[in-house]
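Help! Submission page says 'invalid entity' but I think these are all valid:
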Amino acid sequence: MERLLRDGHEVLVLDDLSTGDLRFLASDIRERIELFEEDLSSVDVTFLTKILKGTDTLFHLAANADVRGGWNSTFRDIQHNVIATHNVALACREAGVKHIVFSSTGCVYGDSTVIPTPETEPFPIQTSLYGTSKVAAEGILSSFSAHGVFNVTVLRFVSVLGRYYHHGHVIDFVRQLMAHPRKLNILGDGNQRKSYISVKDCVEALVSLRGENHFEVFNIGNPDYCEVKASASLISQAMNLSPEFSFGTESRGWVGDNPYTFLDVQKAFAHGWKSTISIQDCILETVNWIRENPWVLSLDSDRHRG
Amino acid sequence: MERLLRDGHEVLVLDDLSTGDLRFLASDIRERIELFEEDLSSVDVTFLTKILKGTDTLFHLAANADVRGGWNSTFRDIQHNVIATHNVALACREAGVKHIVFSSTGCVYGDSTVIPTPETEPFPIQTSLYGTSKVAAEGILSSFSAHGVFNVTVLRFVSVLGRYYHHGHVIDFVRQLMAHPRKLNILGDGNQRKSYISVKDCVEALVSLRGENHFEVFNIGNPDYCEVKASASLISQAMNLSPEFSFGTESRGWVGDNPYTFLDVQKAFAHGWKSTISIQDCILETVNWIRENPWVLSLDSDRHRG
């Protein structure tokens, strides 16, 4: 929203603050936006329609993003990613919103057979309820766009790092090392290969990337990947520590995790977007940001997910 | 269920009878099955778990199958295909069901770019909430199977014809011709190419097709397609009529319809299943069955959907 305000737009925000936190909003930003504390999975669609009247573009970022937790609470992804997206689509139809930019995920590719994975990879087999729910949300939006209701841009992100980050393997490693500087437990065998992107590059993609068709999908990530054990070394170095690593035995961090996530981002590049911050710099920036904002360590105590 | 009884199995049926009808059950069949009238989207999962204890294989055929109607009642597919499938998966997990056979649809391929369409076609863009909901249901089941909960066989059917059929273009054409024998209105320009399969061949696929992996997908259809206008001619001939056809102007029958549906069924063939009844014979059998059971004409008055 900082970027949208800087570009001269009026910004209205809906958030249930379940994973967000008002401390992420600088006071000068907070004063310039209209904020509604709402859960989109149970919001009154008539109310939502009313406040969306006159909106040009809606960025639909609200979601449950806890992939691993889906197995403990199997309805959560359906509720917050499928039902919530249906409510958003209905209200946008009624309010005449012209464009929806939707944050999807590389998880939709399941255990892809083509790496780096393009947007057109073979029909994926889902391994998580999170990926399933994002595929469903994309489908709801594309069905509405097929009816000419609004245009849709879907961005399938790899894991996002950087400012305001508070959920995933980097914070888990930092948290462990602050508690026990000499050892680090790593889920899986450490050979998992994952791609990451900086939140700065994400924002640029959200604001600038648009395609030619009424429904357009772009992969967003660095054109690169990093092994989890290399990330663990980098984080340890940044904290001036040399812990002993202990690994799991499985190739996956947990059941349903995808051990090799690396997206083909040529389509986004061809449309003028570029990633500008390498995976290594993303990780280092994130470690520094967490250490400068140690209060985020208490926001989420789950173990790392990628 | 006739086939399962004949094979010596005990059969338990759950149906909300929203599109089914007890008149489809011969009395000797009715006496040999246990029937629960339940809506799976709102069923008590504890109750469902209880009655599923001891079940080896569950055939999950319950669904909203009215593709076109999804646009008038946008939550219906989520409710009856996504939420219901989640309830089924949960109960099967708790009850220890070993195998789920799920009836999916060729609609999951949207407007496919590869025809005939194989199971591995490029990541599809959904054009209907029905297709979206079936992709989501497949994903829920594959996520559960990734956790080793049960094995899953997904059958993606083309449109099904034959005995007990009461919803689609054949019954619409028959209904129109019985009311006005000299004219027939056809949605779309008549050039839509669709594939069909007999319910007999479907039952054989449901009962016999199993793959090597914990989650396996098979396309099920005739290795052939038929233009809607050719089907109209065949139905008219079967009724000894020569009506004037009037066509729409669009290539699609309705928004979200896929004008060319033709699945590659080589995988199912390689696993020992074969279609045995041609599309033309399917259509003729269906016309005859409707004429012998005219009461089905009042079951569903919607216009044809493919």
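Support: the input was valid. A stray whitespace character was the problem, and the output above is from the cleaned input. The longest helix of chain A spans residues 76-95.
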